[in-house]
Amino acid sequence: MITLLSAPSNLGLRPPEPRSVPGAAKAPEALREAGLHARFAALGATDSGVVLAGRYVDDDATRPPGLVRNEAATIDHSLRLAARIGAALDRGDAPVVLGGDCAILLGAGLAVSRRGGVGLVHVDGHTDFRHPGNSDECASVAGEALAAAVGQHWPAIADIEGRRPYFAPERTAHIGHRSDDEEQEEVRALLGRVTPASDVVTLGAARVAADAAAVAGPDYWLQVDVDVLDPEVMPAVDSPDAGGIRAHELTTLLQELAPHAVGISITVFDPDLDPDGRYARLLVDILTAGLPDLGSRVRRDDGGVPG
What is the pairing mode between strands 119-123 and 193-195? Predict the structure, then answer.
């Protein structure tokens, strides 16, 4: 059974301007207002509540070297989110985790690694692979989440509970970066499969999804950052970049990937950039059409736990 879980964290994002707060934490309630919970309830989904994050602080002026923004709060939220995701998995449910920023991938990674681990399909307009080995500007986990999830970051965020990596690199497939992504060659050398947004357009979403699932499968976590969509389709994100995919292509990716996904996290939609709610309604349409079969083909042990 699908269960909705809100994780309204913006801890991993840079402030849109000094001493301001990003709007992504408002996404779960904006999606509820746009009808997401009602439409999923009609599909039989349950509501698993909310895991609140700690206070966002613009600590650029005071943060010591070697720490990411809001580090202690990010780790705390990841641990509490992992416990809630894990409880859903233990019930045999498939969680739809509504972010928030994509630092919530750490909580999902912890939850599945505690249960033996699964693969990862990472759908994102960026590779999110900045880390201390390739940058002197590490600060925002939202731009570094994939690197941390596969063990390529400072231990404080990449090795929580000694579980580095949360997802094995060889069982990780990325889809959706743009042709000018700075880390794409490094990512190609490390991960099991890396597919740019342009290939989704030219090869077709169904083929790209099948190739990604072949690397990550038979069971995997699905992370979707909505900036994989072209800004003409979805401008209400933190870092919009031209060259993304269309709404029908993301819907097809979800339809193809969802059955073998133990759960999914949806991130970086920013309601502050969607004053009339039109993009929230579009996202609700995509998710409702793309996820009804979430977890339907996941292998489970006798207790219902994926694995």
Answer: unpaired
Using an 8 Å Cβ cutoff, are 104 and 8 in contact?
no
pLDDT digits (tens, 9 = 90+) for 146-165: 999 999 999 999 999 999 99
| Token pair 């309601």: residue | 271
Check residue 7 and give its pLDDT. Answer: 98
For helices 71-90 and 105-113, give the axis angle rounded to 10 degrees. Answer: 50
For residue 58, how many other CB atoms are within 10 A of its CB?
17
pTM strictly above 0.90 = yes
CA-wise closest residue to 27 among 209, 301, 265: 265
Beta-bridge mates of residue 46: 3
Burial of residue 57, with CB atoms counted within 10 A of its CB: 0-12 exposed, 13-18 middle, 19 or more buried = middle
Q: What is the pLDDT of residues 60-92, one digit of tens each?
A: 888 999 999 999 999 999 999 999 999 999 999
d(CA 45, CA 1): 6
Q: What angle do CA 242, 6, 54 make, to 5 degrees?
A: 95
Count Cα atoms within 13 angstroms, Cβ side, for 137.
Answer: 4
CA distances from 203 to 10, 23, 174, 208, 247 (A): 34, 34, 15, 7, 16
Check pLDDT > 80 for residue 106: yes
Structural contact between residues 94 and 75, judged by C-beta atoms closer than 8 angstroms: no
